[in-house]
Amino acid sequence: MIDALHTHRPRIVVIGGGTGLPVILKNLKNRHVDIAAIVTVADDGGSSGILRNYINVVPPGDIRNVMVALSDLPQLELDLFQYRFKSSDQFFAGHAIGNLIIAALSEKRGGIFDAVQILSKMMKVDGHIYPAANEPLELNAEFSDGTQMSGESEITAAGKLIKRVWVETNDDSHKPEAVQQVVDAIMNADQIVLGPGSLFTSILPNLMIENVGDALKRTTADIVYICNIMTQKGETENFTEADHVRVLNQHLGMNFINTVLVNMKEVPPAYIDHKKWNEVSQPVKHDFAGLRAMGCRVISADFLELKDRGAFHNGQEVADELLNLIGRSPDEE
């Protein structure tokens, strides 16, 4: 299998959303791999949420950040695409220019998928960016107490233990569905990467699209989960790595995660600014026995990067390990 991989650019599919996804993609770029990013369309916060409410487009924020991570445009042009208007600009307050461009092109083309493919060419994207669906989806959750709630922001703010999540279309007239290119990317991949990112609100919304979940259960690719370094307020308090994987497996009804990347570097408690990063609380607890009981191969190493008084994944170290897993040297051109 390794020899076969060296005859083509290994196909790596990265699925998720939020701030973790662009970090991994940026460090996989220019590493002689064929990258496809499948990005959540269930975000309802910030500029993305405002645009969604006003003109009913797929929230563009995560897609914008992924596009910048994979773009070969000069930095000045990327900075302009990322520029967010100041609060004093009342009409445009808080909006990123890139969000407005994506929203405009989506409206012009009648959907987010074709818009992103066109803009990817304009942005000189090295790889493929696939919105998980061609329409906005609404995230729903059932909590351990039996109550239910809709909306990503509301779910995480509820402060309850999440039992399960699912996605619905805006008018609930049909089931959410990914376009065929998304399914084909999963089925043709050599490696599929989930995370890092919010378990219930960035990763699972993609998997809860029925034909995406089915493809993940059928693919022969190695499915790698990058476990979060820190627990997340409103989602994964007191979780172990095995708890994360157990939730993923339960949502798809089978043990489909093959490999788990686990950070072993200790996070200095005094370094974390809990007020600034109020979504994190404590390091995710280790449970190697629990992971192996679900059939997971565990890769434990120092994947930690401390910056801005928070704990994050070191994108280069993670990318190096992903390349090692598919039998390619990180230094190989």
From TrEMBL:
Main location (coarse class): cytoplasm
InterPro entries in the record: CofD, CofD-like_dom_sf, Gluconeogen_factor
Keywords: Cytoplasm
Protein's cellular compartments: Cytoplasm
N-terminal signal peptide: none
Annotated family: Belongs to the gluconeogenesis factor family.
Biological function: Required for morphogenesis under gluconeogenic growth conditions.
UniProt-recorded name of the protein: Putative gluconeogenesis factor
